[in-house]
C-alpha cells in the first residue's frame, strides 16, 4: 500500500493542487494558500520517502497493476527521492518568494497553477521508469514553462519566449526520433527492461551510438550544454525573478538527470566513444560559461552563466561513470539546485529593492542590508566550493575521479573554473555591497519580509546540507549506485518475471 | 512499404527544416507541426507496418501488429496539437505586442520597462 501510493505523491499532489486552483478562479489569496500548503505537504512526503527508500530500498509502483515491462512503472530509487525532495524544497521557497514579487496581475492569471503543473512534470520525469513516459512528462513541464516564460506579455518575454518555444519543440521532436530508433532496436520502452535487453544483445550495436548522439543532442539542448546553450542566457533573463529561479534551478537539471540516466542504462556498450563526447561537451560548456560569467556585470547574466559552469561540472562527474564520479556529480547536482535558487532569490531581492540589474550601477548596500549582504557572501562561498560549504564535497569527488581515470585536463579545468566562479560572484558582492554608488541610489519601498524569508531560508538549507555531508554520505552512496551499477536499478524486474 | 513511408517521413522532415529556417513566425509554426507529422510517421514505421492481424487476443491468431507505436503516436499527436494551439496564440500576442512577425526584428532588448 505504502509503496504504491508514496511514489505517486510527488506527481499527484501538485497536479491536484493545480486543478483545484483552476476551479477556484482568479483569486490570488486562495491560490497562495493552496500552493504553500501543497509545498509543505510535498516536502514532508518527499522527506519521508527518502527515509523509506533508505531503509527499504527502491519503491516501484506499477500503474494499473500492469506487470513491469508492459505497463508504465514508477521507479522511486534514491536518485529520484533526493531530486524530488530538493525540487519540493525549492518550489516551497520560490512560492513563498512569489507572494511579494511576482505581481498581482500574474497571480490572478494562473501563475501558481502553472508552477504546480511544471512541478508535476519535473517530478514525473525524475520518478518515471518508462522512457516514453519521460518524454510525456518533459512535454508537461515544457508546456507549463512556455506559459510561465510569456506570462505577463512584456515585450522581452514574448520575444525570448518564442525562441525558447521553437528550440524546445524541435529538440522534443528529436527526442521522439531517438525513442523510435530505440524502440526499433530493443522493442521495449521500460528503461530497466531496455538495459537488460541491451546487455544480453549480441547484434550490431553501432546503431546504439547513433541513438546516443541523438539523445545527447536532445538533452544537451534542454540542459544547455556547449554548442546548444545559445538560447539559454537570453531566454532565462526575460521572465521575472521567481520564474528565472524555477527555470535555472530545476529545468536544466532535468536535462542533466536525463543524460545521467540514459547514459548509465542504455549507452554502455561503446562508453569509450559516447562518454568521451559527453566529457568534451561538458568541458567546452565550462569554458563557455566561464567566458560569459567574466564578460557581464549584469547580475542575472552572471548567475545564468554560472548555471552553465555547474552543468559542465556535473556532466564531467557523470561522464566518468565510476563510484567517486557519480557520488560527486549527484551531490553537486543537489547542491547546485539549492544554491542557484538561493542566489537568484538574493539577487532578485537586490533588483526589486534598487530597480537596477547591473552590478556596476550599485554600491554600499551593506549599510542598509547587512543581513542580505552576509547571506549573499555565504551563498557565494558555497557556490565557489569553499570547504565547510557543500560545493566543496561534490567537486572533491569529481576531481578525484577525473584524476583516477587519467583525465587530468578535465580535473584542472574543473578546478580552474571554481576560481572563475569565485571571481565572478565576488565581483557582484564587492560592487553591490562595498564602496559607494556612482550615482545615489533610490531604494524602492517594497514589502520584503517574505522575500528575505525565502532567500535566507534557501541559504540556510544549503549550509545545513554542507555541514551534514558526512551524515548524508550513505544516502548519496546509495543514489550513485543506480548510475555506476545500473543492474541495481533494473533488478526490480527480477521479482516480477 | 516501410521504405516508402521512411522516404515520406524524410521528405516531411526536410520540408519542415526548410520552413523552420524561414523568417516568418507563421511559417516556423507550420514547420514545427509538419516536423511532428514526419516524426510520427517514422514511429509508425519503426513498429513494422504489415505483419499480421489486429492486436486483439485470440487463440487462432499468432502474429499481431505491434499496437504500441500507435499508442505512442496518439499521445504525441495530442501533445503536438496542444503545442500548435499554444504557439498560434503566442504568435497572435507577439504580433500585437511587437508589431512584427519577422524573426529578424525580434532581437535586442525592447525598451518598455
UniProtKB/TrEMBL annotation, chain A:
<feature type="transmembrane region" description="Helical">
    <location>
        <begin position="330"/>
        <end position="351"/>
    </location>
</feature>
<keyword id="KW-0050">Antiport</keyword>
<comment type="similarity">
    <text>Belongs to the CPA3 antiporters (TC 2.A.63) subunit D family.</text>
</comment>
<feature type="transmembrane region" description="Helical">
    <location>
        <begin position="273"/>
        <end position="296"/>
    </location>
</feature>
<keyword id="KW-0813">Transport</keyword>
<feature type="transmembrane region" description="Helical">
    <location>
        <begin position="243"/>
        <end position="267"/>
    </location>
</feature>
<feature type="transmembrane region" description="Helical">
    <location>
        <begin position="36"/>
        <end position="54"/>
    </location>
</feature>
<dbReference type="GO" id="GO:0015297">
    <property type="term" value="F:antiporter activity"/>
</dbReference>
<protein>
    <submittedName>
        <fullName>Multicomponent Na+:H+ antiporter subunit D</fullName>
    </submittedName>
</protein>
<feature type="transmembrane region" description="Helical">
    <location>
        <begin position="74"/>
        <end position="97"/>
    </location>
</feature>
<feature type="transmembrane region" description="Helical">
    <location>
        <begin position="205"/>
        <end position="231"/>
    </location>
</feature>
<feature type="domain" description="NADH:quinone oxidoreductase/Mrp antiporter transmembrane">
    <location>
        <begin position="129"/>
        <end position="420"/>
    </location>
</feature>
<feature type="transmembrane region" description="Helical">
    <location>
        <begin position="409"/>
        <end position="430"/>
    </location>
</feature>
<keyword id="KW-0406">Ion transport</keyword>
<dbReference type="InterPro" id="IPR050586">
    <property type="entry name" value="CPA3_Na-H_Antiporter_D"/>
</dbReference>
<feature type="transmembrane region" description="Helical">
    <location>
        <begin position="164"/>
        <end position="185"/>
    </location>
</feature>
<feature type="transmembrane region" description="Helical">
    <location>
        <begin position="6"/>
        <end position="24"/>
    </location>
</feature>
<dbReference type="InterPro" id="IPR003918">
    <property type="entry name" value="NADH_UbQ_OxRdtase"/>
</dbReference>
<dbReference type="GO" id="GO:0008137">
    <property type="term" value="F:NADH dehydrogenase (ubiquinone) activity"/>
</dbReference>
<feature type="transmembrane region" description="Helical">
    <location>
        <begin position="303"/>
        <end position="324"/>
    </location>
</feature>
<keyword id="KW-0472">Membrane</keyword>
<dbReference type="GO" id="GO:0042773">
    <property type="term" value="P:ATP synthesis coupled electron transport"/>
</dbReference>
TrEMBL record, chain B:
<dbReference type="InterPro" id="IPR039428">
    <property type="entry name" value="NUOK/Mnh_C1-like"/>
</dbReference>
<dbReference type="InterPro" id="IPR050601">
    <property type="entry name" value="CPA3_antiporter_subunitC"/>
</dbReference>
<dbReference type="GO" id="GO:0005886">
    <property type="term" value="C:plasma membrane"/>
</dbReference>
<comment type="similarity">
    <text>Belongs to the CPA3 antiporters (TC 2.A.63) subunit C family.</text>
</comment>
<keyword id="KW-1133">Transmembrane helix</keyword>
<feature type="transmembrane region" description="Helical">
    <location>
        <begin position="67"/>
        <end position="92"/>
    </location>
</feature>
<feature type="transmembrane region" description="Helical">
    <location>
        <begin position="28"/>
        <end position="47"/>
    </location>
</feature>
<keyword id="KW-1003">Cell membrane</keyword>
<keyword id="KW-0812">Transmembrane</keyword>
<feature type="transmembrane region" description="Helical">
    <location>
        <begin position="6"/>
        <end position="21"/>
    </location>
</feature>
<keyword id="KW-0472">Membrane</keyword>
<dbReference type="Pfam" id="PF00420">
    <property type="entry name" value="Oxidored_q2"/>
</dbReference>
<protein>
    <submittedName>
        <fullName>Multicomponent Na+:H+ antiporter subunit C</fullName>
    </submittedName>
</protein>
